[in-house]
Amino acid sequence: MPYVELENSQANGHGQIDYGENVMKGLRKEEGFKKSTTQQLSEIHDHVLKTFRLLIADLCQQFNGGHPGGAIGMAAIGVALWKYVMRYAPHTPDYFNRDRFVLSNAMTLDQLKSYHSDRVDALCPGHPEIEHEGIEVTTGPLGQGVANAVGLAMATKNLQAIYNKPDFDIVSNHTWCMVGDACLQEGVALEAISFAGHLKLNNLTIIYDNNQITCDGSVDLTNTEDVNTKMRACGWDVIDIEDGCFDIDGIVKALKKARKATEKPTFINVKTIIGLGSAVAGDAVAHGAAFGAADIANMKKMYKFDPEQHFVVSRGMREFFEDIPARGQEWVAAWEKKFPLYEEKYPELGAEFRQRVEGRLPDNWRDLVPAQFPDKPTASRASSGLVFNPIAKDIKNFMVGTADLSPSVNMIWKEKVDFQHPDLKTTCGITGNYSGRYVHYGVREHAMCAISNGLAAFAPNTFIPVTSSFFMFYLYAAPAVRMGALQHLQIIHAATHDSIGMGEDGPTHQPIELAALYRAMPNLLYIRPGDSEETAGAWITAIDAKKTSTIISTSRQVLPQLSQTKREGVARGAYVLEEVKDADVTLIGVGAELSFALDVAKDLRQTKSVKARVISFPCQRLFEAQSLEYKRDTLRKHRIPVVVIEPYAPNGWERYANAAICLTRFGHSLPGKAAYKFFGFEVGKMASKVGEYLEKIKTDSILREEFVEL
Amino acid sequence: MPYVELENSQANGHGQIDYGENVMKGLRKEEGFKKSTTQQLSEIHDHVLKTFRLLIADLCQQFNGGHPGGAIGMAAIGVALWKYVMRYAPHTPDYFNRDRFVLSNAMTLDQLKSYHSDRVDALCPGHPEIEHEGIEVTTGPLGQGVANAVGLAMATKNLQAIYNKPDFDIVSNHTWCMVGDACLQEGVALEAISFAGHLKLNNLTIIYDNNQITCDGSVDLTNTEDVNTKMRACGWDVIDIEDGCFDIDGIVKALKKARKATEKPTFINVKTIIGLGSAVAGDAVAHGAAFGAADIANMKKMYKFDPEQHFVVSRGMREFFEDIPARGQEWVAAWEKKFPLYEEKYPELGAEFRQRVEGRLPDNWRDLVPAQFPDKPTASRASSGLVFNPIAKDIKNFMVGTADLSPSVNMIWKEKVDFQHPDLKTTCGITGNYSGRYVHYGVREHAMCAISNGLAAFAPNTFIPVTSSFFMFYLYAAPAVRMGALQHLQIIHAATHDSIGMGEDGPTHQPIELAALYRAMPNLLYIRPGDSEETAGAWITAIDAKKTSTIISTSRQVLPQLSQTKREGVARGAYVLEEVKDADVTLIGVGAELSFALDVAKDLRQTKSVKARVISFPCQRLFEAQSLEYKRDTLRKHRIPVVVIEPYAPNGWERYANAAICLTRFGHSLPGKAAYKFFGFEVGKMASKVGEYLEKIKTDSILREEFVEL
């Protein structure tokens, strides 16, 4: 970040004077800053911090907005981290073994963003991703970043355990996560913190920018817990930094200690002052507004800078950071030299590793999908296992987890190994190690999905995280599912127990309205396969979707296996399951209730001489992507009425159907079959409803044009 | 619960023999159990626990399902609580001053539910609410119950601070919350725990059924934290019970100590063994499956019960619990005697209290809503304040909170007092006391809404909780919003910064797909008012909705005040804003973009001679409830094309419109106006799109029947 600002300040052509000359005298790069005395270094640091604080103040003032307070408070942390500790290469930002940095507190990220808003496009146009160089994930809503960081650290551990050899540590990076007071209040962060402590992720460091300020005022307005003790109780080491605004040396020492931690993740509690040096220092108002010209001029006077000058960066300051790119390139070069040697010595692992670095799967992965399935009725959650377990077993890109529903979600493959700290002893006897790829996330749905975003963000498609839980609990995880989709991360969510067919657990577990959310969510495929064949199609589609997240939504209860289903059909979103000449109506069947549509068609034919064609419609978004011609040929809505059968809120189906047999109230606690019956999803009853509807619209032309719930 | 089972065992006509006779000898009720020696009591308890455990085992076995393990493990806690400590009245279940009990761990609630599933309807038919007597809230998904309990305890504190007098403690109840291992992993519970510690809710006790088992196996598979230390760090007192399966005395002592706690909430860590006495004791499989007949027979032999007999309850056992109803009625009678005296001495407070007990608002509350508003452009989040602040100020039913967005959501009324522990000193100087009705929830959106469910569940409409945050963050809170709607609780969510108009914070904060969730969610009103007048309508509608939750979704940015808007129109969901004779098209305007529709209509008229009528459509669910006639007269979709303008995913609008100017991708980080422009929401551009669409469908009859994104 500091580096970016140096570049920009020049590019912007603002005045540049050398206040630092005196401080830097005799300390030119060629003489080596390393030779500086403690006193000299201290003076350099003082100058550097002042420069940054004024740059931040000037920047926010320029467009009268932004979040200056936090950034100013964190300046010393930034210098310590980016100058002295972080291993990264500005000129090779995607260097595979780089340290990962996650900015979980929103402030500075916001600032970077608004920095590049339309008002300042001239300052740094184009390439909105490059500008976030060094920021690994979009954390956005508070708390997500902590969990993302846990995922990044898990990714490192897993790669190390699988690929590192005593003579080759090809993966050795550390994950740093900066959090604010707000992050540490969010449930998703608290879940992830507890889990990281359990996993003993010693390659993870949280740096807590402890300024005790949130939007509403001081933190003690809402939170008076003893955070250090809480973190220790969760299995973290804690280091305190009392003077976080100035004590760069202390911060560097703490960061270095954290990198060398052997047993636990580290929590560095850095006391800072928001908006330090400004008139609003330590106050909530420093959080989200520019300081004003007068206040900034005062700061500059106090710092012995020229109050008339803006965006001032001294030559000495520039040189102080000049070693960073070269140092980074050295790391890159060393790694690039080492890796071919590794490939030579460990050709199989090397090939696999390279393939993963390149985000590819083995070419033959499709061969692992069963060509056909047993005829007997099968729950589609079981079909998911049949399809995916062999893939998960063989292909190490997949990191598969569950939020405490292993017995229900069928994601365990034969001889799976758990991802656990190798020393863990459990009461139930199940153990694992870091090379394991099955993750017991605990009852932490939200953290599971946010951690999976971190896994996926480690490097494109190097990991393809799979999460699993009941579909309803993906409402708990929704903010993280959204962040995955928004960041174009390939994550597959195996959601079981969908629709009211899940039964006894009742309305709190029956997802009536949840599909409406995920069908509307951009860059997310919500797929409801109707039997094993379609479940194969769903997984193939999800694995092919390199930049999109997918929810595969399956049934708890057994489903009949249908001869008409086609895995290729799933990829098109909808396809004709049963064609009839001169049909009177199109029935849409979906997922667990797909067979209902076939049965209703049969009943209509037999009892009412109504000819119904049936289409299977597992995924609206995939269907939307098809050609207009395909869509019209499949639906035929412009010719005959279309009726959709799905025990969900119908929102969105109005586009494809004229009428719906659906559910617009909360469910009911009954066994699955009884629940279907209770809500009128019986074949005879449904057929009668369709028959009556078709009769009615013969004479009621207005009704024919309206969407009707039957 | 035990009591219910006693009743049922008789009603069911199962065999009843008196194994307890020997144990109970000389200990009949008339002699008073209180006179029993420690040794005698211990023998009684032993008998009672065995009886319960076998009842539970028999019950689950009867229909080969349920969750016997947890219930059996918790039997001693149940006896301690319901026989010795809880103040409740089985015959007057809604006794206002009763202790509140929340069962947060799902196990036993599930069991009660399945107990009454269709398979056992004969055992206890009808009245599905009465059977849950003594259970205050539907906790459903894990973790919710902890937050609900915090809300219940806050309700007590607030009523006490407002209404209790030194000589009249008309509210004195305690809240007990039973949690399992799983609950304590969920983020929403962790948020609520931290907040309850901050508030020093000494009237709240969590009883932790610490059996160290979840679905996947032992808890140490996923969680190895030091929970006691963590709870202490969060501001809780901790009491350990080592032998939670048998030590009724110890549990009673702990519960009584917790009730008398003066400074902090209490966490009682009770070590139990899941499925105690069965072959699967201590194992995860004890959690969710019946034990099997052979295992139960063995248990009975071990307990010296007849293995051939089922549902056995001794007369002594029955008598042991027989004092409970009478004791309860004494409490009720005492309170009912005391309250009129209170009313006499404190007539104003008494009248207000009675009104709240009856769930009513002062009759004149509508007079508090401004009759009109200033003409100047106003953000609808500001309108929300104009409408609701005076109501919140005067009417004590409202408990208003925010998840750290006080400066943004405008929910603070003049002279508001914060709900805080009276001794709290904060760095920022803001303090409060328990009579305060403004709650700084911290950055804990999910807990805020789940706690609000608890507040609302205290007694019907005695509290009407109001929550506030950015609309996007209601995705964090969605599971709790859902539980509120599902339980028919009146809760009002003031969601600001809706649509892309919120601007700079970018796609992570711009709610593209979230409205689709809430428009589909049963028993929830998602209302987007278009200006101050409609905002008044939204609040009036929400306050009138006694058994329904509402989200009032408002803008960050200023909106023009429209002369055509009508507050009464909001209650109908949609209404005609601008009528035109022989219109060519109906434009739907919504919320922050309502004026766009009017502007587009004007532009169409001026530049294209197209006659557009405009309807305002703030709430789909309210509109659905209108008569068919009203709906057709308003929409006229059967006569002319309808185009909706809203920068959201259009899912659901297909029912009302033929085309949409909408947004099906994630947003973009730009100032609000620039974001509208970036996505084509400029008046001229939108008018052109509508004009072109109207031209196209003149010749393309298929397109006319399809839903089109413009």
From TrEMBL, chains A, B:
Keyword terms of this UniProt record: Magnesium, Metal-binding, Thiamine pyrophosphate, Transferase
UniProt-listed InterPro entries: THDP-binding, Transketo_C/PFOR_II, Transketolase-like_C_2, Transketolase-like_Pyr-bd, Transketolase_BS, Transketolase_CS, Transketolase_fam, Transketolase_N
Coiled-coil intervals, chain numbering: none
GO-annotated molecular function: metal ion binding; transketolase activity
Reaction equations catalysed: D-sedoheptulose 7-phosphate + D-glyceraldehyde 3-phosphate = aldehydo-D-ribose 5-phosphate + D-xylulose 5-phosphate
Cofactor(s) named in the record: thiamine diphosphate; Co(2+); Mg(2+)
PROSITE patterns, per database record: TRANSKETOLASE_1 (PS00801), TRANSKETOLASE_2 (PS00802)
Pfam families: Transket_pyr, Transketolase_C_1, Transketolase_N
SMART domains from the UniProt entry: Transket_pyr
GO cellular component: cytosol; nucleus
Uppermost EC category: transferase
Entry annotated with the keyword Transferase: yes
Domain Transketolase-like pyrimidine-binding: 378-561
Annotated EC: 2.2.1.1
CDD domains referenced in this protein's UniProt entry, alphabetically: TPP_PYR_DXS_TK_like, TPP_TK
Any GO BP: pentose-phosphate shunt
Superkingdom field: Eukaryota
Family in the record: Belongs to the transketolase family.
PANTHER family attached to this UniProt entry: TRANSKETOLASE, TRANSKETOLASE-LIKE PYRIMIDINE-BINDING DOMAIN-CONTAINING PROTEIN-RELATED
Protein name, UniProt field: transketolase
